[in-house]
Amino acid sequence: MKILHCPINGPRPIQEFSFGGAVRPMPDPQQVDDEAWADYVFNRDGEQGIQREWWYHIASNTWFIAERNITSDQFIRTYLWNGEEAS
Amino acid sequence: MKQRLAAQPGEWIDRTQELEFRFEGETYKGYAGDVIASALWANGVQMTGRSFKYHRPRGIYSLAGHDANAMFSDGTHTHLRGDSLPLVAGMDLRAVNTFGGLKGDKLNWVELFSRFMPVGFYYKVFHRPAWLFPFHEKQIRKIAGLGEINPALPSTTSPKDYAWCDVLVVGGGAAGLEAALAAGRTGARVLLIEQQARLGGSLAWQHGRDEEAQRAYGTLVEAVLALEAVEVRCATMVGGHYADHWVALFDADRMSKVRAGAVVYAPGAIEQPAVFGHNDLPGVMLGSAAQRLVRLYATKPCERMVLLAANSQAYGVALDMLEAGVEVAAIADLRPDGEPSVLGEEVAAAGVPIHCGHAVYEAVAKGDKSGLRGAVVAPLRDDGEIESSRGQLIACDGIAVSVGWMPNAALLSQAGVKFAYEQTLQQLAPVSKPDGIFVAGRARGTYDLDAQRIDGRDQGAAAAYYTGREDKQISPRVESCKTAHSHPYPIFAHSGKKNFVDFDEDLHLTDFVNAHQEGYDSVELLKRYSTVGMGPSQGKLANMNAMRILAKLNGDTIDETGSTTSRPFYQPVPLGHLAGRRFHPMRQTPMHAWHAAHDAEFYHAGDWYRPEYYRRANTHRDECIFQEAQQVRTGLGVIDVGTLGKLLINGPDAVELLERLYTGRFKKRAVGRYRYAVALDESGVVIEDGVIARLAEDRFYVTATSSGVGAFYREMLRWAAIWGLDVTLSNATGQLAALNLAGPHSREALTALTDIDLSPEAFPYLGVREGEVAGVRALVMRVGFVGELGYEVHVPAWQGAHVWQSIFAAGEPWGVRAFGVEAQRLLRLEKGHLIVGHDTDALTHPYEAGLAGAIGKNKPFFVGQRSLQIYRKRETKRVLVGVRWPDGFKGGLPEECHLIIKDGRMVGRITSIAPVSTLGYALGMAFVEPDMAEPGTRIEVRLDDGAMSVAEVAALPFYDRDDERQGL
């Protein structure tokens, strides 16, 4: 069972968390064409390497960002959301 | 106990405690400290079981927990491992894989037909003709498998517990003991796990003649037990290694889940079989098994032994056997030059004939095959092939095999350690490992005892340093051994095809050759086709030889061949140790006790208990539900809606958040008013509905579906964070109780209880007020929840029961009655209200569900809006409509999900159905194609029995089309 470091609560077992998917900036709905919008909604690239992900600490209702190597399944670091860019 | 030796120094048996037990109907005696198999062997019982496929006689082979053919049943437990489980007085055991007893197994004829049972035979033989397969399957199921399950036994649960340590040490041999000491002395908290009943590992059985080693053994164990930082658990197996050093331990009684800071693996190596003719007969065993019999259980393996050797350990076995009074008739050494160390000379000096460059061609059975009468020893050619024609029969009743080792790698592999074939050692050795994992001792290819001890010390200290308990960084000094202790190919062809590679699954050398010829030339395919390594020992005695065979057949190296993946568990684990307690958290509303006292029939709605309806004497369920609904239509009813999601959304940006999350418009909503609201996901699918009430400019009260509120609240929090809005969100679902008072008399009933002005002018439909109800601070919404005049009252949970009872008392003049979820569903269906997730599915967008009216126009943004724009451009493929049957219809009615058929085509399905309604006819909702949506259109629904039920599309709502009653 993995351990994940919540930025608020510290290291906790993975069962206390819920995975929220990769961080994927929403394209501007006013500008984007239908095809690009459908691509955003339905497709995930699954690209290997470091992925920025949403994780949620269930007990404390905390959303945060985790950087994870999805090839080796190792967490690199975690931090609270601070806009689109990594803090 | 005719095979029992005189007391051996350090023996594990306690001769003061004699235990009586039964095996296959006979009574025997053993000692406390025996394992089942050693006690049998001490009594001269060499045949401990029958093999899996051919029902061949088998005996002790490893005596280290890997003997699939020494498994017993006591009638309750079906797979007792005879070579590792302690003997208990009064045991009444049978071998697991026999038909009619071990000696006269009625299936021993199967072996005669073995040439008709080639590798993969069950894939080939029984599938043609196909119509015979059910018969074959029944027969195979009767014969296949080990042991029988007694379904009459009660289920038992075993405890789970938790532990943590800085350094977990796996294996209590020389390296493990030193590692535990070294780590423990730094102040690290250490947990030392040993699978055997006592500490010591090979110190307990392999170094018996070495007095210095025995002294060190005693000192080490004493030191470990004296160290407070070290907890020792013997007779405990590490079952699996999971992420971040989360390790599952199993003992006889329980599973323990351990979190370790670092793990030192010192699990040793497993001695490997040689493959020769009839190498599976009782009496053929590993050299280490013969040593274990002598040293741990003071039991003589045989009277006269032939030893097949390929390393120096074999010569240690010979000397130990001589000391135990066993005559060593010959050593066949696979190496052309024999044993280079001084041990070779010692054995030769004792008069043991040593045949260098020789192998055992076959073991020769006694007449009844219960044991051996000899071994045929033959010379090896330069190419490694055996010259059977030049073989000589040497009389013996035992053959010991010491030709090589395999690191005990299963757990290491699970932990992420990678292995590669080491040419110097002629075996696998670890080449890389993840952080926090340390490997010590023989598993690394370290065979010298002193080197093992130094390595244990270094790895233990390095692990302590890794956890931060030790300041000094340690670089392990010991490298793996420089001479091979394993033969590169101890596998020899035999004309009789009875040279077994896998004793669990009865696979012999030809099976591998055939599988390879049929194209199964990769190790993972070979495993699945032949089932090698899939038996009770999980390949611990078979996989290495299988790799060597496959590599040779392919002309590849061992590394190119690769090995199969090790997964938990290390050895099979009783299911009772894994079974959980069926713990399901259930939620009850504050009114639960009242419901229970009033004969509520509860059902599970997600986590919640909800009254489905209230039972009445001599009244059928359907009638109870109908009466409850009728009472709401004509008088007064109350329902507990405390399971509704209840969210408090406050702050300057609260309205902005709601505008972006929901499809509707809320900016201009007046304080004191609420509105029905629908939320979508980004693909435009309806995921939530509820009401949004504005209590103040910056204060909103939002209800959500009972089952969806948790996930939706979570998404709300995420969007609020992404958008950086100044808003606070709280999920008050459990903090508030809620009830719904509905029916033409609801205003009269509530008036007496509240200070809120309930007159239609002061408190119209869609209004929300804060005030007091029954002396309790409450939020009251005027709703049309079930299509009648009604009020929804929300109060703090702890006052919920009080308010519920007060309303009941106030409603008495109108015959107030509680109604359950079934009546509520009927009433709401009559009003054409859909249930998200029931009448809609994971693809339903608002235009299909008749929810276009809930979509705000000219909004700059809401979640799902962009997808709806795309849907708007496309043709809608289905729409949700009402369907009804004629008054007094007596024919068959569909159930939910029954299909609507038109011209032999599926054109829709029923989503909700009410066979009986307060309107006097059966009604429901259905998805149909848009050209069928016109009221009056005839539809046909196919029932379970294939009959068609005819109905027609009806305008929604069925009841009170002009909404006059809820607007009273």
Question: Which SSEs are present, and which pair or pack?
Answer:
The complex is a heterodimer of chains A (87) and B (968).
Chain A: E1 3-6, E2 10-13, E3 17-22, H1 34-42, E4 50-57, E5 62-69, E6 74-79
Antiparallel strand pairs in A: 1-2, 3-4, 4-5, 5-6
Chain B: E1 14-23, E2 26-32, H1 36-42, E3 49-50, E4 57-58, E5 71-73, E6 80-81, E7 92-95, H2 121-124, H3 133-143, E8 160-170, H4 174-185, E9 190-193, H5 211-226, E10 230-233, E11 237-242, E12 246-250, E13 255-265, E14 269-271, E15 284-286, H6 287-297, E16 304-309, H7 312-323, E17 327-333, H8 342-349, E18 354-356, E19 358-365, E20 372-379, E21 392-395, E22 398-402, E23 405-407, H9 410-414, E24 418-422, E25 427-432, E26 437-439, H10 449-466, E27 500-502, E28 507-508, H11 509-517, H12 523-530, H13 543-554, H14 558-561, H15 575-578, H16 592-597, E29 600-605, E30 608-614, H17 621-634, E31 637-640, E32 645-650, H18 654-661, E33 674-680, E34 686-696, E35 699-704, H19 709-723, E36 728-731, E37 736-742, H20 746-751, E38 768-773, E39 776-783, E40 790-796, H21 800-810, E41 817-818, H22 821-830, H23 865-873, E42 879-884, E43 899-902, E44 905-914, E45 923-928, E46 938-942, E47 948-954
Helix pairs in contact in B: 4-5, 4-10, 6-7, 7-8, 11-13, 17-22
